[in-house]
Amino acid sequence: MKKIYLCVFVIILIILIILAVAYTNKNQINEEDKFEIVTSFYPLYIMTLNITDGIENVSVSNMTNNNVGCLHNYTLQTSDLKTLSKADLFIMNGLGIEMFTDKIEEEYPNLEIIDTSTVQLDLIKDSEGLNGHVWNDVDNYIEQVEAILNSLCAENPENTEKYTANAENYMQKLHLLKQNSYIAKEGTTVVSCNESLAYLLNDVGLDFIEVYTDHEQSALSSENLSKVIDEVKEKNIKAIFIEKNDDRKTAEIIANETGVQIYELDANLSGELNKDAFINSMTNNYNILKDCLE
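Request: output the structure for the sequence above.
Response:
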């Protein structure tokens, strides 16, 4: 009787091992079959999440940490290159935001790279040249979504129908966001202490004094700061805007000298990992603008 029990136990054990191996192999095959997309940083990741929503044979990863912020002067990490090693497609913003693309092209010469800034965008030039933070203008954001959609359909045509349906649904929400955006009274002037806010402020019709520090510094020189303070005093400035993650030092000096209040806006450089993050963030920005300017 003991021998029978032992034989039954061995048979059951063998069956379980076979099932486990089969399940593991199936998962490995499924992973290998997936179309791997990697985005450069947070705003591109949110766009791509919406377009690929619910598509099981597509994987989306964000190369940089979602809280990294803007990629000026960012140095590629070993972990970033490892993330890219299995990628079928790399999606980037362009316009100088990602300064490390030469390194990526050198490491992975066969990787397909999509630059979302090559479409028709409404660009802003500032004292540093072209401002690359284009996604904070909703119309530009929609153009970038369309650029990603077209690239995905070209590179992974088997999912064209699903990509298109997801993108159309997302763009409907974005168009509604645009319709409900805040519009400033003509001639309203504010202070902007972060270049990443320029597209947002311009999009709602605000004039603004640029108070941008060098990326290596956190404050203006005393001479330049004095000029800004004099200009703020001369004009009917309504508010000083900083990005939510900014060092407040420069803004507080201006506020203390002029009596103008500081407000925080979100430039969508980092945030929650959900599909509606951009829409929620921009809606909150519009509410802040409306409350402080009216």
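Residues 189-293 form a domain with the Rossmann fold fold (CATH 3.40.50.1980).
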